[in-house]
Design a protein that fits this description.
The protein is of the alpha+beta class and 74 residues long. Helices cover 26% and strands 43% of the residues. The chain has a three-stranded antiparallel β-sheet with strand order 1-4-5, covered by helices on one side. Strands 2-3 form a two-stranded antiparallel sheet.
């Protein structure tokens, strides 16, 4: 792993406005890639109350890609 490339996971709910008075909140995980401390990519994946196999596979794929990215020299 390279010290200048870091992968961070963050629990980040998202707010979506329905109208002027209401909003919905969606829980999710952000996979954040940083190079030299600066964010270079952010992928947000929703996390439901009952995740599906497809949800699990999407998270695994995002993590795998981010960790492979972090292992390459800048």
């Amino acid at each position: 792993m390279s010290a200048d490339r870091v992968v961070q996971l963050s629990w980040e709910p998202r707010q979506v406005a329905v109208d002027d008075r209401a909003a919905l909140s969606y829980p999710g995980i952000a996979v954040i890639r940083r190079r030299h401390g600066e964010v270079v990519d952010r992928t947000w994946l929703p996390v439901g109350e009952e995740p599906t196999f497809a949800d699990d596979e999407a998270l695994i794929a995002a993590l795998h890609a981010a960790w492979r990215w972090s292992s390459h020299a800048a």
